[in-house]
Specification:
This protein has 215 residues and is an alpha+beta fold. The chain contains three helices and five strands. The chain is rod-shaped.
Length: 215
């Protein structure tokens, strides 16, 4: 068992760093204390085996929006076994200070949320405007489609009329052909009758001429 005494510098006070250290200590099941120092550093005393102490040091080297560890001064010694758990050391006047710090962070958070809402609001306005433009274009396309369908309907009507006219023409052609055939039959019958009559008249003329001795 070893004892690690660590002095952590950076943005570590009034930023939730000690709470993170408490959580890390709970996960690793180590014992000791964590406290703020007047010079702005955080002092951590922790006892455990060397492997866990190494993991602990790596875990507390935190860098994020609120916490920024710049350096960790480490001192190792033999463990004393005086700690039964890991706890946070708090000064008597620290509560008011933490409330003020919380109010400060809450103010920053409120400003950040308001800015985010304004940005989102602006983006939503742009998005809605684009959607309106797209809907207008869709309406225009639908109007054009309606006009095209109307024109197609008119063209189909004209085609139907043309087909009707073609049908009437074909019907008239059939009637005309029937009339021509009938006329040809009538003409043939008439000509046949004329030929028969002429043949009869020629025969009579030949008989008369023979009777007179002309032929």
């Amino acid at each position: 068992m070893k004892r690690l005494t660590a002095y952590v510098s950076g943005k570590v006070q009034k930023a939730g760093f000690r709470a993170r250290v408490m959580e890390i200590a709970r996960v690793l099941k180590v014992k000791g204390t964590v406290e703020n120092l007047e010079d702005g550093r955080v002092k951590i005393v922790v006892e455990s085996d060397e492997d866990k102490l190494k993991l602990f040091v790596e875990a507390i080297d935190i860098k994020n929006t609120l916490i920024n560890v710049s350096s960790i001064e480490k001192q190792y010694s033999d463990a004393t076994g005086e700690y039964s758990k890991f706890c946070k050391m708090v000064d008597s006047g620290e509560t008011d200070s933490r409330i003020n710090a919380a109010a400060f962070h809450l103010k920053d958070l409120t400003v950040a949320v308001n800015n985010m809402n304004e940005n989102l609001g602006g983006k939503m306005d742009v998005t809605i405007q684009k959607q309106d433009q797209m809907l207008d274009k869709q309406d225009q396309m639908l109007d054009k489609q309606d006009k095209m369908l109307a024109v197609q309907g008119q063209m189909l009507e004209v085609q139907h009329q043309m087909l009707d006219m073609q049908g009437q023409i074909l019907y008239s052609q059939h009637d005309l052909l029937d009339e021509v055939r009938e006329s040809r039959r009538d003409l043939k019958s008439y000509l046949e009758q004329r030929f028969e009559k002429l043949e009869g008249e020629v025969a009579e003329m030949r008989i008369a001429l023979k009777a007179k001795g002309i032929i």
